[in-house]
Each structure stands twice: as C-alpha cells, then as structure tokens.
C-alpha cells in the first residue's frame, strides 16, 4: 500500500520526537517542527544546510554541542556502512539528565544517500528501569 501525502505529512507533523534528514555531505536538509522549536531555545537561526560541526560552533551550551558531536560521528559510520544504528544518548539540561533513544538509517533516493535520524525522549522509562535495576542489586 502506498501512503498518500496527507498520511506522510500527518506522521511527520505529529511525530512525538525529533526527526532530521541529512544529505550525503552530512548537511541537514530537514528538521521537524518539534526539533526546530527545541533548538530555538539555543540557536537563533536555521540549521538547514549546516553540518553538526557547524552547528556545534554556534551553540554556547556544551551539553547541546556534545549531542551534535555524537550524532555527527554516528552519521559518518552510517554513510560508510549503510547499516541502521540505535543508541541511547544522555542530555544534561537544567540540572536534569534526559535520555533519548536515537535511531539512524540511510536510504538511497535518486542516486543520493540520505541519513534519517529519529529521537524519542525516554527519560521516564529509562530512569524507572535503572531504579529497579539498581534496587535489585
């Protein structure tokens, strides 16, 4: 079944996490509104057309910069291996540790390789899991 554009738009616009698409040169060509709104707290300009390293140089918050550095390195391995990657990253903000489940995969469209990234906030279930794991020790 082919998805119509309305379904695709609905998915992208209502996705509960962050979505990005990068080209084979690691330049961001798309961010969803949720990520854009969150980034506006730290960066006062668009990141479209920029690499993670370029974005990192614009960010004063070292924790945010670290997240972009981690994602840049993973993008390099994705583009070279073509495999899906999944990891949990920690983001420290306002005295609180937040955890995100980040998945990356590549796809070739019209001969061009694109890197897709999705990230979902898993702070609450992650903390619960760690609490029970530590309690059982």
Distance between the termini: 48 Å
Specify the overall morphology: globular
User: How would you sum up the major sheet?
Assistant: 5 strands, antiparallel
The amount of helix comes to 40-55%
Query: Roughly how many Å is the radius of gyration?
Result: 16 Å
Low-confidence stretches: none
Structural class given helices, strands, pairing? alpha+beta
Q: Quick one: how many beta strands?
A: 5
Mean of all residue-level pLDDT scores: 81
Element-level helix/strand string: HEEHHHEEEH
| Count of alpha/pi helices | 5
Q: How much strand content do the residues show?
A: 25-35%
Strands side by side in the biggest sheet: 2-1-5-4-3
Output the keywords.
137 residues, alpha+beta, five-stranded antiparallel sheet, 31% strand, globular
Topology of this protein?
Layout: H1 5-14, E1 18-22, E2 28-31, H2 33-39, H3 52-56, H4 62-81, E3 85-93, E4 96-109, E5 112-121, H5 123-136
Antiparallel strand pairs: 1-2, 1-5, 3-4, 4-5
């Amino acid at each position: 079944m082919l998805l119509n554009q309305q379904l695709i738009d609905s998915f992208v616009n209502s996705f509960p996490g962050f979505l990005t698409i990068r080209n084979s040169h690691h330049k961001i060509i798309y961010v969803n509104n949720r990520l854009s709104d969150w980034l506006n707290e730290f960066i006062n300009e668009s990141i479209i057309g920029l690499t993670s390293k370029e974005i990192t140089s614009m960010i004063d918050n070292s924790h945010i910069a670290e997240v972009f550095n981690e994602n840049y390195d993973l993008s390099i391995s994705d583009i070279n291996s073509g495999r899906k990657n999944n990891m949990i990253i920690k983001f420290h903000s306002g005295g609180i540790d937040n955890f995100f489940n980040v998945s990356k995969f590549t796809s070739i469209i019209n001969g061009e390789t694109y890197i897709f990234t999705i990230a979902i906030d898993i702070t609450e279930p992650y903390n619960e899991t760690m609490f029970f794991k530590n309690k059982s020790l």
